[in-house]
Amino acid sequence: MDNEIQVDHSETLFKLYALQPVLSDADQVEKLLEPLTYPKNSYSKICFHNISFGVDAARAAEPMLSSLRERLTEVILSNIIFSLALEGCSLKTLDLSNNPLGEKGVRAFSALLKSQSNLEELYLMNDDITKEAAKAVTELIPSTEKLKVLHFYFNRTGDEGAVFIAKIVEASPSLEDFCCATSWIGSKGGVAVIEALAKCRNLKKLDLSDNMLRKEAGELLAAALLSNAGLTEVHLAHLSLQAEGAIKVGKPLTRCAPSLEVLDMSMNRITPVAAVVLANCVASKQFLTKLNLSGNRLTDTDGHDRLTEVDMSGNFIRKDGATCLARAVAGKPRFALLNINDNCISEEGISDVKVIFSGSPSMLGPLDENDPNGEDDEWDEDL
């Protein structure tokens, strides 16, 4: 067997992955996929990772895959050529990530997508999902009533495409995990998505990071957060919320999501104006384990015994703020890492912080990029 191709399988999972980009030999494919033809096999999940099939190879694979139609519940594909072969499968999980699909590619999967009424997880990450492709997804999948996980991130969806994503969200009352990070969504598209999220009631994980939603999204986000009391992870990094937006998010978040474990509001140009609100929010979360407020303009944060990681890098923290942070977390029984690099901490402040962590130096991140003379004139006041 070609040493660039690996087969890994368990009782129910058949996984094929390769370093070579294309499988073109039909005989080789028949040999690789032979376990799928064994009598009484129990495969219900297939994963073809990083593999493209040539025409002859695909023709050899098609009947083998078709024989599993009635049993398959989870499919990870990197080739549109098997859409017809898998038509009629009643899947719970469909992962078409890391394919340059665009609208043409999505519609090439139409036979497979049109037969999916029981999907619980759908992954379309890094698929060049433009507005046309997003529209195609909404048109082709007949029902998302049972959908619990929807990951759409790292695409070129834009504001107009976000409207179609919002339609999927609205039609997914069971949604628990939603991510559309890094999808070129601005304020207009963000409004559509957030309004749809506000109609959800079962969200546990939410990730809207790296979209230019701006501070105007803060008030709408408040409604979405309050509607989903079971949230355990909230990722709102790099949304350009500024202090005004952060306050509008922080106040309602203080009153909801009691089981929150992860909060990421990094890179939002948040000034100290919002610090008290965010500190109160953090203090109210008994189960919070990871807090990321890096890349803002804050000076301190609050915490509690369950915190394991705090990232306050890239702010304008000076000696007093750094030592307060160090003292606040150094004695916590579960704490693992404090990152306060890329701030304005003096040499004396760095020495003081190192003394505080002298008994557990591995809990302190690097401090080599601090600038004790750093100025904040590159920041514009947003309030």
Automatic annotation (TrEMBL):
Gene3D superfamilies tied to this protein:
Ribonuclease Inhibitor
Protein's name in the database: Uncharacterized protein
MF-aspect GO terms: GTPase activator activity
Q: Which InterPro entries does this one have?
A: Leu-rich_rpt, LRR_dom_sf, RanGAP1/2
- Indicate the segments annotated as coiled coil, or none if absent: none
Per its UniProt record, what SUPFAM superfamilies does this chain match?
RNI-like (SSF52047)
Q: Where is this region: Disordered?
A: 363-383
Biased-composition ranges, Acidic residues, are: 368-383
Instruction: Give one Pfam hit by family name.
Output: LRR_6
